[in-house]
Amino acid sequence: MYRISLHTRHTLRWPLSSCVQEQCRQWPHQSVLIGASPHTTMHLSVSSRSLAFSPLDMIRKAKPTIITDPTQLDTSFADVAGMEEAKNEVVEFVDYLKYPQRYSELGARTPKGALLYGPPGTGKTLLARALAAEACVPFLSIAGSDFVEVYAGTGAARVRDLFSQSRKHAPCIMYIDEIDAVGKTRRSSISEGHNEQENTLNQLLVEMDGITPLESVVILASTNRVDILDQALLRPGRFDRQISIDLPTLAERKAIFELYLGQVLLDPDRGVTDYSARLAALTPGNSGADIANIVNEAALHAARYKKSGVREDDFEYAVERIIAGMEKKNHVMSCEERRIVAYHEAGHALVGWCLEHTDPIMKVSITPRTKGALGFSQYLPSDQKLYTTEQLFDRMSMALGGRAAEAITFNRITTGARDDLEKVTEMAYRQVAEFGMSPVIGHISLPPQAGGKRSYSQKLSRMIDEEVKELVNRAYLRAKQILEEHTEQLEKVAVSLLEKEVVNYKDLVDLIGPMAHEKRLHQHSELAEMWTNR
């Protein structure tokens, strides 16, 4: 083995010459000074008589993380909550690696690999680690970006070396994280010339299902960009199974919260189940990583104030911090701006309170936040997947309630509704151009394309713009009509916000009475007991 230190302005790209090899034979275990070029000096320290050496050998080696002792993984299926369907998909790999003769006797061929795909933070890597621990076999892990190198042929060489190491450790599990870094769809353009990424992908395809069989090695890979992967990589014989790991549902979020809540010290008066259901209802669309972050933020908050356990107000703080950011206590607003924000947020709350197809409101605050919000409203959203035209229209009206409240109260509008207008405009365009919900445009879908290109005429584009404008105007007029009919309630909510800065569900019931409609998709009957002011 030779140890080399390079002092050069250029990169050495050639093996040792015969002259240098002869010097190494004559003076083993000595230092040899080599002038590779007028600008290159290489100091070679010989520690072995072997002369089969190239400076590129080291960078052509794959360097996976190899765990031969499954106990080092410290992860099992019990530590993976909320992914029962995905666990059932991969449990067959465990059985095959433990009892391969059971399958060979029946002539069955176990899937060679599985591709785990889904949004970030849903637990793809965690599931792969749990699979390796349950199977009690070596685990080789490497990132897809580790194959990317500027030197031609290096990526393919690392792929060959990785599979060579896997065969030596068989039976084992090979895991490639973020495989989209190396598995992107190949292009057929001749003008592109040499493409190192395509060469690396070609080598990966050959190693996974080529002339040389790959026995007793299960290949797992994960990505959140399955849409850009090459089809040859996804065919049976390579990744036989494609396992979707979606964002957790309400029941799955409850199970994940119970897992992480069991790892922190809770208030002695409350148990895990007292928090899990409520927190799960508050966090639709959150991944497992988001849930872990919420529990950790709550524990950090409790430790910061030297509490004996994590309590309700700590979880309230954590959820609010994830949604809107930290409170900016040093941010000072003028009295006029504070009044505008109070009436703006009161308008949102009151319009949503009176409409049927909106999410129940839990809390309204006019405390500035680090994410740029001067005030925010916290709702209890549902896991609803399908929306009708009426439901979308109610949500648009609620979003425009703040702008309408400003116009009614102050006879002028401000820039505070920018985020609301962006959301409403996007909702309107999607209804008209994508969901086919406009009677004028008809039942067609024209989703936006990359680069801003349009697949329809300018005439149709103008029609879409007119429909969107008319739809947004109708939603605004409806919000304004509701507020004009409930001016007294709007004033009560705004005044209460100016006095206390935070108004919760119980306060809203006392101020303006119960909600006008039953929220059938929500369990809002528990809102009165869910959170209280800190």
How would you describe what is shown here?
The protein is of the alpha/beta class. The protein has 4 domains: 2-46, no CATH class; 65-244, Rossmann fold; 250-324, Helicase, Ruva Protein, domain 3, CATH 1.10.8; 335-448 and 457-530, Peptidase M41 (Methane Monooxygenase Hydroxylase, Chain G, domain 1, Up-down Bundle), CATH 1.20.58.760. The chain contains 19 helices and 12 strands. The strands form 3 sheets. A 6-stranded mixed β-sheet has the order 4-6-7-8-5-9, with helices on both faces. α14 (401-410) crosses α16 (458-485).
Keywords:
534 residues; alpha/beta; Rossmann fold; Helicase, Ruva Protein, domain 3; 4 domains; six-stranded mixed sheet; three-stranded antiparallel sheet; 12 strands; globular; disordered N terminus
Summarize this structure briefly.
This protein folds into 4 domains: 45 residues, no CATH class; 180 residues, P-loop containing nucleotide triphosphate hydrolases (Rossmann fold, 3-Layer(aba) Sandwich); 75 residues, Helicase, Ruva Protein, domain 3, CATH 1.10.8; 188 residues, Up-down Bundle (Methane Monooxygenase Hydroxylase, Chain G, domain 1), CATH 1.20.58. The protein is an alpha/beta fold and 534 residues long. It has 19 helices and 12 strands.
Q: How much helix is in the residues?
A: 40-55%
Outline the biggest β-sheet: 6 strands, mixed
Superfamily (CATH H level) name of the largest domain: Peptidase M41
Q: What is the CATH level 1 assignment of the largest domain?
A: Mainly Alpha
- How much beta, percentage-wise? 5-15%
N-C termini distance = 66 Å
Tell me how many strands there are. Answer: 12
The CATH topology of the largest domain is given as Methane Monooxygenase Hydroxylase, Chain G, domain 1
What count of structural domains?
A: 4
Kindly name the structural category.
alpha/beta
Count every helix, treating DSSP H or I runs of 4 or more residues as helices. 19
The average pLDDT score comes to: 81
Please mark out the parts with pLDDT under 50 across 5 or more consecutive residues, or reply none.
1-51
Multimeric organization: single chain
